[in-house]
Amino acid sequence: MIVRDFNDLRKTDRAVSDAQWTSTRMLLADDGMGFSFHITELDAGSEHTFEYKHHFESVYCMAGKGSITDLGTGETHQITPGVMYALNLHDRHILRAEEKLVMACCFNPPVTGTEVHREDGSYAPAEELAD
Amino acid sequence: MIVRDFNDLRKTDRAVSDAQWTSTRMLLADDGMGFSFHITELDAGSEHTFEYKHHFESVYCMAGKGSITDLGTGETHQITPGVMYALNLHDRHILRAEEKLVMACCFNPPVTGTEVHREDGSYAPAEELAD
Lengths: 131, 131
What we know:
The structure is a homodimer. Chain A is mostly beta strands. Chain A is built from two helices and nine strands, in the order βαββββββββα. In chain A, strands 2, 3, 4, 5, 6, 7, 8 and 9 form an eight-stranded antiparallel β-sheet that branches. The N and C termini of chain A lie far apart (31 Å). The A-B interface holds A 1-7, 26-27, 31-35, 37, 39, 56, 58, 60, 62, 68, 70, 72-73, 75, 77, 82-89, 91, 93, 104, 106, 108 and B 1-7, 26-27, 31-35, 37, 39, 56, 58, 60, 62, 68, 70, 72-73, 75, 77, 82-89, 91, 93, 104, 106, 108. Chains A, B: Its EC number is 4.2.1.108.
């Protein structure tokens, strides 16, 4: 059994920050669960374009307020606590935080922890990271 | 993109209850994400023995207070908001809610939604459910 506390990990190098967001990696690929699990905080007023071409991701809103625009369909959905979106089609999207968002995120395949967002908003597939 | 709201789903048959817990299935196997994602609420004062012999599960505490005892090692860990446990060894365990617990749970392989807890605290593997 693995037991970890977000309140501890967010002060360590398991908390990865980029422009206006911080993702605390509670579970990564090497934990052997077959998925990774992150708590991601997005700064109030920030806007992010992501497209996980090589991953499925689900994102559950625990706190905050914002919206997501599906760039495939043009549809925008409000995000408030209790709303989950799942990128089952690797959907390219814009995520906006009106208030600071705190999200519980699952990735399949699991993130290894060494990925960086590329220009196109994606993470590289695992095989490229291994190179 | 799938968008669902816990506050709506918990009033539907996607909210499954058993003795002193309710699990609202935000994502199930047929969503094709490769994992399932549930919001599980455990009643204050309740105690549960589970052993997911055929699944990996991670559980993140969003609210409440309780503890988990690993029946393999005898160790007990406190559960408060921000604590996650991951059953990477299919660990048989007792989960206790001192206060009502609200947990974000990921299962791999994904739960289909038709499982029931068996006498031994497990869910059947997917192949048995298909019979």
